[in-house]
C-alpha cells in the first residue's frame, strides 16, 4: 500500500543542499503546508499513484485497503508513495511542508477529479 522511496539525487556543499526528487513520471506537483494537529485525507485515487517528500516537519500516514489498515510515521527527508485505490489520512504532528506528486494529475482530461471520498 505504501512504497518507501529515495530521492534520485542529493548534493550538499558549503552553499546548502539540492535534492532532486524525480526526473520523470509525474504530471502534477504540489507543495503542501500543514499546521500541527491538522488532518488531511479520507480519500483515495482511482487512477493516481501519489508520491510525497517531507521537506520539514512530521506526520502519521494511515492507509487502508480491503480491511487492512497500517500507520507509518514520516519526518523531514522521508519520501514515500501511495498506490491507487488505497484510502489514506495524514495527521500532522508538527508544522509540515510536503511536496506531493501525482503520476496522472487529479484533474482528468474529461473534467472529472480522481478523488474518491471515504464513506
Keywords:
119 residues, mainly beta, five-stranded antiparallel sheet, 58% strand
Please specify the SSE layout and strand pairing:
Layout: E1 2-5, E2 9-13, E3 16-20, E4 28-34, E5 39-44, E6 50-56, E7 58-65, E8 68-75, E9 79-82, E10 87-92, E11 96-102, E12 116-117
Antiparallel strand pairs: 1-9, 2-3, 4-11, 5-10, 5-12, 6-9, 6-11, 7-8, 7-10
Question: What would your notes on this structure say?
Answer:
The protein is globular, with a radius of gyration of 15 Å. With 119 residues, it is mainly β. It has a five-stranded antiparallel β-sheet, with no helix packed on it. A five-stranded antiparallel β-sheet has the order 8-7-10-5-12, with no helix packed on it. Strands 2-3 form a two-stranded antiparallel ribbon. The chain contains no helices and twelve strands.
Amino acid at each position: 500500500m505504501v512504497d518507501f522511496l529515495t530521492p534520485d539525487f542529493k548534493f550538499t556543499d558549503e552553499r546548502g543542499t539540492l535534492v532532486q526528487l524525480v526526473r520523470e513520471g509525474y504530471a502534477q506537483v504540489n507543495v503542501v503546508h500543514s499546521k500541527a494537529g491538522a488532518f488531511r485525507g479520507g480519500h483515495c485515487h482511482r487512477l493516481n499513484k501519489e508520491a510525497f517528500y517531507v521537506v520539514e516537519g512530521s506526520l502519521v500516514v494511515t492507509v487502508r485497503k480491503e480491511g487492512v489498515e497500517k500507520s507509518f510515521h514520516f519526518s523531514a527527508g522521508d519520501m514515500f508513495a501511495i498506490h491507487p485505490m488505497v484510502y489514506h489520512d495524514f495527521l500532522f504532528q508538527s508544522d509540515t511542508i510536503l511536496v506531493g506528486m501525482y503520476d496522472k494529475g487529479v484533474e482528468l482530461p474529461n473534467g472529472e477529479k480522481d478523488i474518491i471520498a471515504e464513506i
